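Hi all, posting the design record for the shared folder.

TITLE: backbone redesign
STEP: 1 of 1
STRUCTURE INPUT:
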């Protein structure tokens, strides 16, 4: 009886620590890929940063430098980059 409780506990623990996070990540990835639009700044699994210029069924065209565009599989998109906030002007330090 104790062995059965231990086995069930291990299965539940495995489910909570391994399966659930993988499902959550898979759903987030599918949502990210489905929501890609031209103009989004993305990061690929290979480390390329760029701006989406065109979205196809299975791939996106990413501009990684001015007039340099590459085709990337949608599954290789690892994240959307947030735009950097505009720098605000700070008052000049006054010298004594």
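Okay, here is what came back for every position:
SEQUENCE:
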């Amino acid at each position: 009886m104790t062995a059965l409780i231990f086995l069930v506990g291990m299965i539940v623990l495995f489910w909570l620590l391994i399966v659930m996070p993988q499902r959550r990540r898979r759903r987030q990835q599918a949502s990210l890929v489905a929501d890609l639009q031209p103009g989004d700044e993305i990061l690929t699994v290979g480390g390329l940063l760029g701006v989406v210029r065109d979205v196809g069924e299975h791939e996106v065209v990413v501009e990684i430098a001015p007039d340099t565009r590459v085709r990337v599989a949608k599954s290789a998109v690892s994240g959307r980059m947030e735009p950097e906030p505009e720098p605000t002007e700070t008052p000049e330090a006054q010298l004594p």
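COMMENT: The CA atoms of residues 25 and 31 lie 10 Å apart.
Let me know if anyone wants the other runs.
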